[in-house]
Every structure is written in C-alpha cells, then in structure tokens.
Amino acid sequence: MMISGGGGRSSWSSSTSSWVPTTSVSASGKRIQREMVELNNDPPPDSSAGPKGDNLYHWIATIIGTPGTPYQGGIFFLDIKFPSDYPFKPPQVVFKTRIYHCNVDPDGLVSMGILKDDWSPALTITKVLLAVRSILTNPDPYNAVVPGIAHLYLGDRAKHDDIAAEWTVRFAK
Amino acid sequence: MEEQKRSPRKQKLALVDSNGQNLATLLSPRFKSAAAMAGWDEEALLLASLVVEDTPDRDSKHKKRYVLHSKTPPTNSSRKRRALRTPKARNPVTFLDLDAEETPRKDSGRKKEGKKSCVDNEGSKVEEVGNELREKNQGAPSSGSALPCIDKLRDELSCAICLEICFEPSTTPCGHSFCRKCLRSAADKCGKKCPKCRQLISNGRSCTVNTVLWNTIQLLFPQEVEARKAASASKGRQQVQNLSPETAFFDNLRNSTQPRGAPSRSMRRSGATASTTQDDEDAALARRLQREIDEQSPETTRIRAARVRARRGVSTGQHEDAALALRLQREEFLQTFRGSNQDQSNRLPSSSLARANLRAMASRAMNLRISERRR
C-alpha cells in the first residue's frame, strides 16, 4: 500500500507541475478558485489553507493540534496537491511536519478512506481538513499505515500518547 | 346595438393614435404584471391592450355603455378614464419582478409616476416601491433579484461538484441535484454513486434535466446562467477553431454558405431570442442531426435537448474526439443539405459525394468506438 501510494505520488506531482497553466479556466481551476473564496469567507476552526505560490493546484494548509489530544499546541503544516481532474479525483494530503500517528506514513502521506476509494466530488478541502482534524483526535488503528504505532495505540495508549506528545513538542513547535 | 359596441372601440383606437402613452396608464396592474412575466415589451403591451378590449368583459362593456349613455362627447380626457378605472387600480397586485432586464416596463412605470399628480392612489405607490426595488437590483448586479433569502437560495441551488449555480440540473433517484454535466462526469469517473449520499444511482448517461428546477434557476439567477451559457459557447468556438486544417476549410465553406440559408431559418424562428444567426444555424443543424443519429436518449423537450446536445457536443474539454465526430457529421449533413436545397447536381460532383460518404462512415465508426469506450 505504501509503495503504491509513493509511486502515485511522484508521478502525480510531476504531471501536475507540467500540466498546470498559470491562468487556468478549466473546470478544476474554477472549482479550486471557488473553494479558495469560500475558505476566505468562512474559514474552518483551527485550520487554514491556501495556494502555496501562483500555482492554484498546490496548496499549503495548517492545522493546530486540538486541545485534549497529544497533539495539542502543535502547528502542523500540510501540503495539498490537486489532480488535474479534481474534484473527480481526490486531492493528495501530506503532512510536512513530522507527526506520530498511525494513519500518517513516514513520508507524511495521510491515509484516509475519503482520500482514496471513498472520495466523493461533493467533498471540499474544508471537509478534508475537518476529517484530518478528526483523525488526530480519533486515530483509526484498524486502517493504519504504520502498524507499530497502531499496535501501541491499542495495547498501551498512555505510552502512545506520551510519544506523540513528545514528537509534537519536538517537531511541531 | 352592434354599432354601439363598435364605436367605443374606434374611439379607443383614435385615442391611442392621438396620445399613445396614455394607454399604458389604463392597463390594470394585474395585466401589467402578467405581461411582465411573459416578457412583453411596451409595444406588445399596447397591442395586447387592444386585444384585451375586444375580449368579452362584462365590467368594461358596462363602463363603455355608461360612457355613451352619459352623453358626454368623446374626449381625450384621460383623467376621466382613470377616474372610471380607479376601482381596478385600487386593487393592486404586488408582483415579483424576477427579471432585472426590463427597461421598457420600467419606462412605462416612470411615465406613470410623472402623471401621478392627478391620481394619487395606492396603485401608484406600489408601482413606486416596485421601481425602487428594481433600481436596487441594478445597483447590485451580482444578485438576480432582491429576495432577502437570495444567499441561502444560492447555496441551495449550487451544484456540490462545481460549486456554481446548477446548470441544467439533473436530480438523482435519492433526490440530490447537480449540473447534468457534473453528474455525468462524476458517474463516469467516480462510480455510479450519488456524490452527496453515496447511494447507487443509475447510469449518468441517461440523466435528464429537472425542468422545474432549471426554470426556477433561470428565473432566479439570469445573469449567472447567461454568463455560463456564453462561456460554454465561446469555449466551443475556440475548440472548433483549434481542430485541424481540414475542418477549418469546411468551416470557411460553411461560413460562405451561411448568408444564403440563415435569413429564412432565423425568420421562421421570429428572432425574439438574442442569439446570433450563427447560433441559429448551429442549433438548426444540430437538431436535424440529432433526429438522424440519436435514438438513445429520451427526448423531453426536443428543442432544449438539441440545444444542450449542440453545446455539449462541441464544448466538453475531455471528449475532443466526440466533438470532432460531431463536427464532421455536421459538415457532411451541410453538404447534402446544400445540394438538396439548390437542386444543382453540378455543385456536388460525384467525387465529393463519395468523400462525404467516406467521412460519414468514419465518423460513425468513431462514434461507435467512443460509445464503446464509455461503456
């Protein structure tokens, strides 16, 4: 699973960077622009997102760790890459800040159902960020990409939380 | 009796000729609002008012007779007439002005305001409010009308896929509506599930436009709809121009034949629409073509379906092949059509006929391949 994810990622990023024109009038570009406007008008709580540079298809987002979780106080940066046929294909969400989480692979790739087979074109980046925030609160160890962390989470929750909090202090502050 | 009936009508006609604008004030607000909904301009309104006078209306006839019996000479005094009509004007109908682009009606409203001094009834007050409302609309051109809940409506009538106002909405069996094009793409690329609730939906190909919803959207957001129509049309043109030198050649050929064919056809369709003759020609051709090649999709309203088909056929970014095939077929048709139109066999030599046939076969094969690939 990890391998396929990594492979898709590299080809993906190359295709998006070569394909995207700066002044796009395509359907995907329009939709992304619209999402940007809506994010500005009605920003989600404790997170933000926007284009990284002049490339509309490459965004950067931040999530502030929810209080009451081992990630509290941390600021996590994410990279969001939109495929050229967005919204019919899911965006790719990668943690740029290191995080100790069973659903985030060592490269930072977020593994969630809605970012893979369960993607729906009616989902927006706002909803994706909300979902990422919710897996920070409630990890899904049964669909984990890092089995070791999932094991620890199920077996010794306190130790898992300690390590996660330590990583947050080390990398996300 | 017969004479009595006719004479007031003549008198009315004379009245219109002498001061035609007075008539606008004679119309009841109810009639005006109905006319506004039908999109009539001032001229049509005046004409219609004459027709209305002819229709058997107990009330008005009685009044006419009353005018005759009172032995007053037929004057042009509009004050008197308005005085007679006040009961009708007292009963104003507040109408929802959905179209912001009704300057003729607004003008008539202005005239009425100018003469308001003689009759100060509630009807004119309502008219005034209406005018204010319309002016507000023009102040904020982004919103189609000044309904208080327009933002909620905009959210509600937006397509969850493209996040814009639904364009030709199609409704799934589970009750969610999307742009037809968006729903089709979603079904093609994301599986046959409703994007909102993941319920199984039928083949996105067979989806039909929800007519009521589409008409509602067109009434509420005319500007957005027009902008999108224009965008898709220009996109289609661009794409057509980018196709190939051969099609460019046939394009020229088509343009050269256009002035001959276009006037008669556009006249038949009483140029009420603001479309150009080229659009008309395109639509006519597409309609004919559709009749020939299309048996799969159920036709609800034929003209609309043809228009949709024409637009979709040339505008979709992904299916360039389909656009090319349609284009070729259109040219093939145009050639044969031109031949039959003029009845000149020397205009179509056998070699070009053969070429046309070959092209038709190729395009049909291409169509088949496309439909197979989609399946």
Automatic annotation (TrEMBL), chain A:
Region (Disordered): 1-28
Pfam families (UniProt xref): UQ_con (PF00179)
Domain UBC core span(s) in chain numbering: 27-173
Comp. bias (Low complexity): 10-28
Matching SMART domains: UBCc (SM00212)
Protein name: UBC core domain-containing protein
Organism: Psophocarpus tetragonolobus
From TrEMBL, chain B:
Record's compositionally biased regions (Basic residues): 78-88
Amino acid composition bias (Basic and acidic residues), ranges on this chain: 102-137
GO CC annotations on file: nucleus; site of double-strand break
A GO molecular function held by the record: nucleosome binding
Family matches, as InterPro entries: RNF168/RNF169_E3_ubiq-ligase (IPR051657), Znf_C3HC4_RING-type (IPR018957), Znf_RING (IPR001841), Znf_RING/FYVE/PHD (IPR013083), Znf_RING_CS (IPR017907)
UniProt subcellular location: Nucleus
The protein, known as: RING-type E3 ubiquitin transferase
Domain RING-type: 159-198
Reaction equation(s) it catalyzes: S-ubiquitinyl-[E2 ubiquitin-conjugating enzyme]-L-cysteine + [acceptor protein]-L-lysine = [E2 ubiquitin-conjugating enzyme]-L-cysteine + N(6)-ubiquitinyl-[acceptor protein]-L-lysine
UniProt biased composition (Polar residues): 235-245
GO biological process, any: double-strand break repair
UniProt main location, coarse: nucleus
Keyword entries, A-Z: DNA damage, Metal-binding, Nucleus, Transferase, Ubl conjugation pathway, Zinc, Zinc-finger
EC number: 2.3.2.27
Ranges where the record places region Disordered: 54-145, 232-282
PROSITE patterns: ZF_RING_1 (PS00518), ZF_RING_2 (PS50089)
